[in-house]
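Both lines are given unchanged directly below:

***
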Amino acid sequence: MINLYPTQIESLSIHRVGNKSKNENVFFSEEPYRLTDEIIAVLKEYFFKPFREKEENYMHFSHEVDVTFNELHKIASAVFEEPAAIHKYSKQIATHLFDQSNHPHIKSGEVYVAYFTDVVVDNEKIDAIGIFKSELKHDFLDFRESGSNLEIILRQGINVNKLDKGCLILNQEKDAGFRILSVDSNRYDTKYWLEKFLDVEATTDENFYTKKYLKFCQDFAKDVVLPAEDKKEEVMFMNRAVNHFAKNDDFEETNFLNEVISNPDLIPEFKHYKTEKGPKYSIEDVSNFPIANKAVSDARKKIKNLIQLDTNIQIKMDFINPESAEKYVEKGWDEERQMYYYLVYFNKEQKS
């Protein structure tokens, strides 16, 4: 888990990178930016907010031959060896980004290269390199006094509430390509940020597999369980799946299927669905892995446990005590009304 609240910005370099295919140039700042307390407060929120709101999907640098040939891996290794020289290396980073900015959809923008200390990852303080890019310019109004009136001045600038692109290169696991987090708010530029500029791959650890498998199960529930059974069983399938992950330290697929799928006829459907869809989630050959508790907790928060009816009534299922829904909720068909119904048993109403 990453904690950026105590993080300090030790150095910041700002350059501007144009679109190479449009014959735009790159502009290098001669010196690092002189930071003030006011600017630091704004920039920390601008840089870090997307990473606090985003799932921690770690990646690492890659290369078809060896990771040491990855351009940013070489630069990051040099910066971590000599942090005081980061401004020099920031120009190399901007040049590398400029070289990849050759698609007509790619927008020019400012590139910020920062050196951070006191980044807390899994309770360990480490250093990190931040690379950020602002692309979209927004209109805003400024005002000035003119005699006895206020004049409106239309300006353009950066919206500091939304970072366009950014990555954090953490000084961990260098030989494996460093640990990297990335955000990209703009999807119009053919993935050049991740694939061309960073050249990264997802880190396939227990966190990765836990999240991917649960997402796979969620789609299986929607695509297969719901049409074959009903909404209640779709919800209960995910309920059982999440609870299975929550109470086990290791995942074993056979045990999972026997415990989670109540209808045995759906087990072959699950295996077929995995064969067909598994590559999309990178789990086609995965049947055993350690379970990441945080990933389970994150998934639980996102999974809907509501049965939404067309009569403007909702039934909320309990993910902590799934046996209640199994015992006390029944679905049926009313011939007279020609409508489905849910029958709910209870002893007394609880006070809210």
About this structure: The chain has two domains: 2-203, 207-344.
